[in-house]
Amino acid sequence: MYVCVCNAVTERTIRDLVAEGYHTLNEIQALTGCSGTCGRCHDHAEAVIEASLARPASPVIPVIDPSGTSLLLPRTA
User: Could you tell me the residue ranges of all domains in the chain?
Assistant: First the structure.
């Protein structure tokens, strides 16, 4: 879904940038232009950033094998 129509920035783009380490709207705006033209997307962009920071980028399931070694397995849907 588009967050910023003026600059064609999608929720996925913002989520990907957050996963890469960009955690503020100012950082994302510098890279994408999001919220830099008319500003109507500001609140939506902030909400996507906050939601992305609230959940892990790569969910994993901790598993202990019989030897006692902890393994992290990717979570499947």
Answer: 2-74
Query: Per residue in 7-29, pLDDT tens?
Result: 999 999 999 999 999 999 999 99
**pTM score, two decimals?**
0.71
What is the torsional sign of CA 15, 55, 23, 47?
Answer: positive
Domain 2-74 fold is: Arc Repressor Mutant, subunit A (1.10.10)
CB 41 within 8 A of CB 3: yes
Give the SS3 label for residue 24: coil
Best CA proximity match to 1, nearest among 22, 31, 12, 24: 12
pLDDT mean across residues, the chain: 85
Judged by DSSP in three states, 71 sits in strand
